[in-house]
Amino acid sequence: MAVLSTMRNGMEEPKKAKIGFFLLGAILVAGAALLFFGWLAEEVLEADTEQFDAFVRTAVHRLASPALTSMMQGVSFLGSVGVLATLSLLAISLFFYFHRHREAASLAIAMAGAAGLDLALKYAFHRARPAPFFGTSPNSYSFPSGHALGSLCFFGVLAAILSAHTPRRGMRLLLWMVAALFIGVIGFSRIYLGVHYPSDVIAGYCAAFVWVAAVVVLDKVFKSRSGEGPERSPPTSEPT
To answer: Which end of the chain is more exposed for a tag (fewer CB within 10 A), N or C?
Structure first.
């Protein structure tokens, strides 16, 4: 029994180290994103991003074509509040159906927090929208991009949940690549349509990184403390 206990403890140590490195990486990414968001917000308030925003907007607008405009409008609709809310409710319902309550709670918290964070930041900075290239601008403020923030929270958390239950490394990589593609194209569509400055989109991604990292870290800590992590062997007594 003592040998079995030692073997189990030996197997737990690499798992604990892996979780520790993962949490450290998430915290470092969140810290870097938070610092960059703070710097970018200061630049926006001082109007120091105007040249950068104008340059990128002009370069992207040169790519315009009727077919690309239709595609970007569809992609932008995919990242809208209504669509992301519907997809979130569907995913949460499926997680509950398959008794994945912790995953359902993580996604619900991530999306609810994303909505609150977007609203709070928009009202905190009061940045006016740019003149749109196509269609009309929403009535809300511009900084940060809610589409960028919401899409990264939804597709990022969903990819993290699904990849955690996917044993094959190739499939995990594919999940993350698809998630990154959706996130990137949705952000690009907002710049292409002219309803956001590029700095708005970057800020939305930074805010989402911070929030998603916080949700992931809390989820890992809760999982570890609730005993869902590496299995702990019960205490054993050696025969005397």
So the answer is: C
